[in-house]
Amino acid sequence: MQHFSNVAFLTASSIVLLCSGAADATSAIETCTGVQCVAVQCQKPFKFMSAKDAGTCCPLCWAENIDVPEDRSWAKGLSGGVGPNNNADPVLCRGVMCPPLGCPEFEQSFDGRCCTKCASAASNIGPAEFAKKYDDMKAAKEE
Predict the structure, then answer these.
(1) 3-class SS at 2?
(2) In angstroms, how far is CA 39 from the centroid of its own chain?
(3) 3-state DSSP of the chain
């Protein structure tokens, strides 16, 4: 039933988008309606660029050639995640970074996909899990 409702929703959304796009296919959409711009004073090396030249709703300060060192201080202490489960497919899960788990080891499980999951996360059924269970049920019926 979940699969049918998702398909119905996507079909209805597509029809609405097609119908709304068909009526105004040649007219321009004014995206800056209601946007209020503030006065801009540019300091060197920046130069004033009008909204028309910038392709934006408001004018801005722009510098063609300026080198700013990348600030990565906000990333201090972030690990980037953990690697895949040792039982995961090494080819399909190559380069995968899984989120660090916040549950005790006895609540962790591996369901055949790349990452180890907490029991609370494994009970949630997302689109990928739903598709896998659907394929498993379909294969079982064909046997």
Answers:
(1) helix
(2) 34
(3) CHHHHHHHHHHHHHHHHHHHHHHCCCCCCCCCCCCCCCCCCCCCCCEEECHHHHCCCCCEEECCCCCCCCCCHHHCCCCCCECCCCCCCCCCCCCCCECCCCCCHHHEEECCCCCEEEHHHHCCCCHHHHHHHHHHHHHHHHC
Residue with tokens 């040649």, as numbered in its chain: 26
Q: Could you give the C-alpha distances from 32 to 12, 28, 69, in angstroms and in order?
A: 29, 12, 33
> Taking the complete model, does pTM exceed 0.70, yes or no?
no
Neighbouring residues of 118: CB distance < 8 A, sequence distance ≥ 6:
101, 102, 103, 107, 108, 109
Look up tokens 């995640």; give the residue: 81
Sorted by sequence, the CB contacts under 8 Å of residue 104 that are 6+ apart come out as none
36-63 pLDDT per residue, tens:
999 999 998 889 999 999 899 999 999 8
What's the Cα-to-Cα distance from 37 to each of 28, 78, 117, rounded to whole Å?
21, 37, 47
